[in-house]
Amino acid sequence: MISSSEYGSHSWELLVAVEHQHEEVQKEFLLQVTGDLHIGGVMLKLVEQIKISQDWSDYALWWEQKKCWLLKTHWTLDKCGVQADAKLFFTTQHKMLRLRLPNMKTVRLKVSFSSVVFRAVSDICKILNIRRSEELSLLKQSEDALKKKKKKDKNSKDPVTEDILNLCNSPMSSGLSGGPGLYSKTMTPTYDPISGTPAASTITWFSDSPLTEQNCNILAFSHPNCSPETLAEMYQPRTLADKAKLNAGWLDSSRSLMEQGILEEDQLLLRFKYYTFFDLNPKYDSVRINQIYEQARWAILLEEIDCTEEEMLIFAALQAYHVSKLSLSSEAQDFTCESEVDEVEAALSNLEVTLEGGNTSNILEDITDIPKLADNLRLVRPRKLSLKTIKPYWFVFKDTSVSYFKNKESAQGEPIEKLNLKGCEVVPDVNVAAKKFGIKLLIPVADGMNEVYLRCENENQYARWMAACVLASKGKTMADSSYHPEVHKILSFLKMKNWTMSPQAVSDPESIDMKPECFVSLRYTKKYKSKQLAARILEAHQNVSQMPLVEAKLRFIQAWQSLPEFGLSYYIVRFKGSKKDDVLGVSYNRLIRIDIATGDPITTWRFSNMKQWNVNWEIRQVAIEFDQNVSIAFTCLSADCKTIHEYIGGYIFLSTRSKGQNETLDEDLFHKLTGGQE
């Protein structure tokens, strides 16, 4: 037996501050502890000393100096490294957080500040009924955007009161993760696939979801655009360097909110970080589709992504359609008048569609015979010191290569040149009104990129060749099952662009109550008068006016995905051995080195050719090895190198998803691919 005096010599005092609402009870407590006391024992001692009768189950110890949670309750103080100079906080793990969604609405809800961000985002998405939470993450607003907001608030005479959707009664407030939400697959049609509204017979199934019909309406539907004045006051990136700043604030998915300095009632942005939208289904994804649509819409309005005038008018027409449809028709928002859905019948019809699958008659043909394209096209080669040359040739597209010959008759012999398109950049160069259908190819060569243009005669020829080029750049041939859907997607986008002036439709632009300046970026509001813009938007509107609401949003998303810059997240980096800064574009399938001054691509590296990547944490350098003994290394100047490391690993993680899997994610694999070893 050890005497009390001997025991006392090994014990020491530990200061713990307690976060509670009782004014009459002290906030700081001194506990007499020993190094072999476990964390659970410390918490038990503390609660006994506080003498307040309440539920302490959500409380845990936070070590302020080390910025870490002490969540392993079986670990001793010695094992954690806690000594007498430590100051611990006994505080709740779930705290209130404000999240600004892609549709610019702010929600306030309880979030776990002790879980890693990856898991916290998963819980948030369950509350908001957004499937595939792995595509989203939390982002701190850029400093430039915050400065602009402060300047706007300072200049504003009336204090702006933000409309906040309060979801603090969510299941997470009790420390539990959210329920299945509205996208549970136990019953088939959760949302009407035409209007996107929650089916009336399903809205009451999940009483644990804080999303009432009204709240779901706010998240699942687009609302009238902000005024041009408000748009002008919002931060708009002007250069590639500005765009790089937007991506600097992504939180580390492998650490908790508290560990990254986020405090209760702080505001963060919830955004789609990875641009691979898997398994979009109007039946389950009304909120998800709308939030993707909104993120795309704001990216276009604030010129975070570049598009042509023709494309801007298409986007404007789809937006104008949404707003006019919603304001003129109450039926889209009326949940109560939805017809009841017979679940059994709906389930059977869904099963029938699933069992039917696609057209299987061509499967054997696809496996045994790789199709080829052969046609007359014009080749355009830019010359540095003279005008570009445009010559007609006979082109043959086979496997992932394009060969061209002087004419059709000479196609049996050796080609003039054979271009291997694997790993190249494919950029559309189209103006439908001017009947210009071009394909710009940037083909990797030893000292940079070889620039080649192909000119097609018409839309159908362009769609076939463009789809073949896109697939070849990814290392796929026209035998791939995605070739025909890609052709169809390109043709449908061209059809939207190909509007004809209808005097009846545009004779009176004022007949539709819309402010055209709300649907285009500031560049075009400065270029055209309001009536001119309205007339041009209404011309483009004719091609989309018959679409159901959800289809129009999906078309908008598809059109956004067709833009050359889609899915690129920019970072300013310094490559090893280089004396100047470059921009690195990170996409779902490749990395692009871009000249910071001109914006021209220099080199492209595909993830499919990547052998390994790692980080030297001492010098904060990312090193990547590719096939054929190609290796690169760079330091990141606009963000922490961990951010780029996580982006690359995240995209590789997302590429492992398949429709056969259930929706539970392999979180360990995600952290293995993205965490790195600091």
UniProtKB/TrEMBL annotation:
One of its GO terms (cellular component) is focal adhesion. SUPFAM superfamilies: PH domain-like, Second domain of FERM. GO terms for molecular function: integrin binding. Residues 378-474 form the PH domain. The keyword Phosphoprotein does not apply. Keywords: Cell adhesion, Cell junction, Cell projection. Signal peptide: none annotated. SMART domains: B41 (SM00295), PH (SM00233). Pfam families: FERM_M (PF00373), Kindlin_2_N (PF18124). It is found in: Cell junction; Cell projection. One of its GO terms (biological process) is integrin-mediated signaling pathway. Belongs to the kindlin family. This is FERM1 protein. It comes from Scopus umbretta (Hammerkop).
